[in-house]
Amino acid sequence: MRFPGLIEKASLEDPLRLLATFCSEEHLDRLKEIKNPRLWRDIAEVALVARPASIYVNTGSDEDKDYIRKRALEGREEYPTVHPMHTVHFDGPKDLARDKGNTRILYPGGRQVPLINTFDRDAGLGEIGKLFKGVMSGKEMFVSFYLYGPRYSKLSLYGVQITDSAYVAHSEEILYRNGYWDFVEKGEELEYMLFIHSAGERDENGWSKNVENRRIFIDLEGNSVYSVNTQYAGNTVGLKKLALRLAVYKGYREGWLAEHMFIVGVKGRGGRISYFTGAYPAGCGKTSTAMIADTVVGDDLAIIHAVNGEARAVNPEVGMFGIIDDVNPRDDPEIYSILVNPSAEIIFSNVLLMEDGNVWWRGKPGEPKKGINYAGEWWPGKKDENGKEILPSHPNARFTVSIRHLSKLDPRIDDPEGVPVSGFIFGGRDPSTLPPVLEAFDWKHGIVTMGASLESERTAAVLGQVGVMELNPYAILDFLPISVGAFTALHFEFEKKLARPPKIFSVNYFLREDGKFLAEKRDKIAWLKWMEQRVHGEAQAIETPVGYIPTYEDLREIFARELGKEFKEDLYEKMFTIRVKGFLEKIERATKIYSTIPDTPREFFEIMDKQTQRLKALEAMHGQKVSPFKFDKK
Ligand code: SPV
Ligand code: MN
């Protein structure tokens, strides 16, 4: 029982009879096809509490997809544009991003976990019960079934979405593989994650009215997530970031990894493809790296298992919910061409929808004209109550589109075996210390110094002091249901199952000198190609106290080949100088935080200590800043 105080247990004894009062015969038959009484009870219980006017069971057929789109338009959750396949959704001015404060992990007794927002499970479920009571009255409730990974894959999970938002259901049809027939095939044996969502009462603009009562509660024990009084996809689309928490938890218990990582293929000698997964906090180049690689399996999430001693990854998604701000034809030709392709089905969110029915976002050529946006009606020069100009499109405006439109889509996107992972990449925004690319000595060294201690410079997009370095372990902190100490221990355990663990690298595209970036945007491909050669033992490396760096000769050759440009020796020297003080400060910052996390593995501190000693020895010999030419090649 999910809502024990609200309904009688006995009322769920015959869930199909109860569901018959909400479903047409056709839709009841669709549920009956899935021979899973637990599922029937779950849906019946939600219906009994939320009291929808009707239930629509989505089988993923073209007809169902069309119906959901139509309902999103009719309910003004989406607006039409000049292109029939393109629609626009607005979340409302107070609902434009993930709500960290109200997203909580439910633990019995409200167990405290450092850095994680937890809450007492009983109290949380009680609160949710009250918020869901009658919340769908007069509304249609959509029930959809999804795969969280390729069909027939041992790595995949399954999810059921219940929502009163056609926009959420529409987004999921684009972003995930519909699994209705898989549920039918598997029947009772199927274990699934359950996502229960309601946008709550909506105002005349279609925005959720009671955002102050927005709640996103993750019930690990019940393998379920409840989300209410919100529409922003990061808070509502179950299979996106809500499932990630459940998947991390399941992986933690079963010994595999759910990561906030892209999966890309990089071409090497003889046309071989080597796969890399990459974790970057927001604003650190994750999407642009995925798009510059040779093939793309996924842009945001990865499920990674050890299979016969090899790390294998699948993308649980088949779509992208990407940031549209500043996407322009010159820097992002691949994404841009999809966004202006009338035959691609796209939901634009929080962009400007102009009176002529065209959409505009920052980066799109042409001027923004009068229309509607995330704050209501918009016209050039419109100001808010504080006299500040309202941007035509929001910085967190997004596009939702199938990944299958990418010309670089990897042919193994649906491979049930996943792709073999040769390297993990951790990317941060660091103006002063980290070189553009660095290879860890081994798995544990990389996990500790690059993954667990990943940090990123705070940018102007976040409130607070600009330039401060913030810890974001594995770029997954916002989505962790367990302690980062436990998550680090899981990575240590994972290595034991691997015959040849992936190499671990860190990248930093934001190293600056005199305020200017040292690397160009396009240089990302050079770092990827170097990593690709390293995993095949083809490129040389220089050993430094913090890991291996490329040789000048190898990079000069890669830059000439891949980018047709001369890579100057003095630029190399600036980029790859070991900045001892900065590295020592990084260690100090991370160690200070991990000292407050009781389940941090002892080895974390040992590895950090050794790195400190190596850096101090280097400093004693060569000073604060050490040129890469001072080290021996390996
Ligand atoms: C992210 O913020 O990492 C995203 C978008 O991918 S959200 O769905 O909001 O998490
Ligand atoms: Mn993400």
TL;DR of this structure?
The protein has 634 residues and is an alpha+beta fold.
Largest sheet: 9 strands, mixed
How would you classify the helix and strand content by structural class?
alpha+beta
**Termini, distance in Å?**
61 Å
Strand content of the residues, in percent?
15-25%
Global morphology? globular
Helix content: 25-40%
How many strand elements?
A: 35
Chain-averaged pLDDT: 96
Total number of helices: 18
Structural features:
634 residues, 9-stranded mixed β-sheet, 23% strand, binds sulfopyruvate, binds manganese (II) ion
Topology:
Layout: H1 15-19, H2 25-33, H3 37-50, E1 54-57, H4 62-74, E2 79-80, E3 86-89, E4 103-107, E5 118-120, H5 121-132, E6 140-148, E7 157-163, H6 166-175, E8 177-178, H7 180-186, E9 193-198, E10 215-219, E11 224-228, H8 233-236, H9 238-254, E12 257-259, E13 262-267, E14 273-279, H10 286-292, E15 295-298, E16 302-307, E17 310-314, E18 319-323, H11 333-339, E19 346-349, E20 352-354, E21 359-360, E22 371-373, E23 376-378, E24 398-402, E25 419-428, E26 437-439, H12 443-452, E27 455-457, E28 469-471, H13 484-496, E29 503-508, E30 512-513, E31 516-517, H14 524-535, E32 542-544, E33 547-549, H15 552-563, H16 569-576, E34 578-579, H17 580-594, H18 602-622, E35 625-626
Parallel strand pairs: 1-6, 3-19, 4-5, 4-10, 7-9, 9-11, 14-25, 25-29
Antiparallel strand pairs: 2-3, 6-7, 6-8, 10-11, 12-16, 13-14, 13-15, 16-17, 17-25, 18-24, 19-24, 20-21, 20-22, 22-23, 26-29, 27-28, 30-31, 32-33, 34-35
Helix pairs in contact: 4-6, 12-13, 14-15, 17-18
The structure holds sulfopyruvate (SPV) and manganese (II) ion.
